[in-house]
Amino acid sequence: MAQERTGVATLKSNPITLVGPEIKVGDKAPDFKVNKDLMTQVSLADYAGKVKLISVVPSLDTGVCDAQTRRFNEEAASLGDNVAVLTISVDLPFAQARWCGAAGIDKVITLSDYKTKSFGEAYGVLIKEIQLDMRSIFVIDANDTVQYVEYLGEMTAHPNYEAAVAAVKKLV
């Protein structure tokens, strides 16, 4: 059974349980399998040699998740080709594609954790009670070492965009 962490996060002030380990700076980034579309799975290895900014959102169809993904899409334009900006949620891949088309998102790669919750469990962000991934940010260097982590204490709060982008810029 996967490790569970309670008392570390809330949803609108209600406690939630996160499944999986707490990832720390300096850790080797755990592998994962997420869907690029309904049939195609990708893993950490698909982004080998690149700096990865992983923006985790519960669902693109909510206000904070929408704003977070739009912000990182804007930032991605100035980060260069050696950076992969990934947004991971449990939204179905066709819902992600529809949302990106409607929102004009073209620099962020959206990936779905709907099938196995592999990312959520590996990175300690799977919310046991509602089976969504908790808002969080991970920056992983080209050698797959974690260089920045932000676990949000409240699911409806915004991440520290500036700190995440600064962590990426230090690596490129």
TrEMBL record:
UniProt KW Oxidoreductase keyword: yes
Q: Which reaction does it catalyse?
A: a hydroperoxide + [thioredoxin]-dithiol = an alcohol + [thioredoxin]-disulfide + H2O
Would the keyword Glycosyltransferase be found if you checked this record's keyword annotation? no
At the top level, the lineage of the source is: Bacteria
Q: Which CDD domains match?
A: PRX_Atyp2cys
Q: Which HAMAP family match?
A: Tpx
**PANTHER family reported for this sequence:** THIOL PEROXIDASE (PTHR43110)
Q: How does it assemble?
A: Homodimer.
What's this chain's function? Thiol-specific peroxidase that catalyzes the reduction of hydrogen peroxide and organic hydroperoxides to water and alcohols, respectively. Plays a role in cell protection against oxidative stress by detoxifying peroxides.
The protein's name: Thiol peroxidase
Organism of this sequence: Paenibacillus oryzisoli
